[in-house]
Request: fold
Amino acid sequence: MRAQLVAIAASLVLTLGLVGSRTAYAAGAAEEPPDHDWKHTGVFGTFDRSELQRGFQVFQEVCASCHSLDYIAFRNLTEIGFSEDQIKAIAAEYEVEDGPDDEGEMFMRPAKASDYFPAPFANPQAARAANGGAYPPDLSLIVKARNNGLDYLYAVLTGYEEEPPGSFELAEGMNYNRYFPGHQIAMPEPLYEEAVEYADGTEATLEQLAHDVSVFLAWTAEPELEVRKQTGLKVLIFIAIFTALLYIIKRRIWAKLH
Ligand code: HEC
Reply:
């Protein structure tokens, strides 16, 4: 009895500790990102192909001028619903470095479906030099790399303020953002209404652009999400049938023994 009480008390302390640390995070420098509605996050949720393709368009036309996407090859885009011909056409818009050739020189050639997304800068130093000393991180895994990454990403993209509030001192070349830790971010506001003309005719509001590109980056961070959920569902069905069978067998066996 005593030991049980101690165990309960210990788990209470642990839970309170966890809740406490979360409050401490919320009270930190940045506002906690509000919950946003996503289609793919529920137990059976899947990615919406139109959102993914629009998000890819936003990444390509806006984010890719500063951010790399190192872990995605053009051919991976079949998973978000592009046909092989579409992918060939997308890849052909890019040039990648190849080589060395017979003279030992590196050379540029049009990208193929098997190539990875070319980075906008040759190296981190060049990236920093072009961005006032700040480094635009690779976006492939950013949704996984940040606490509550998906809501956070959407919040940062929609959380810019033209004027910092009251006495806030904004450093030269920095921008005010409600959700970025410390509120000063070197990235200028990347999205605004009509920043992209959507291929499918969807109205490009700031919220729509931020939503779509966030969904796309959720996919790049976790492309296996749908397969994982399908496997989970199959396992659940299997366990349900197995339990039913066990129950029937148990009843049969005990029926003879009574
Ligand atoms: C003009 C260049 C530029 C463009 C365009 C741009 N970014 Fe950035 N981004 C930056 C820089 C620079 C940083 C680093 C900011 C810092 O550390 O203060 C950054 C940081 C970020 C971060 C990291 C925030 C964090 O928590 O560290 C995310 C996420 C991000 N960008 C997403 C995007 C998305 C999505 C787009 C396209 C809609 C985009 N960016 C377009 C330059 C850019």
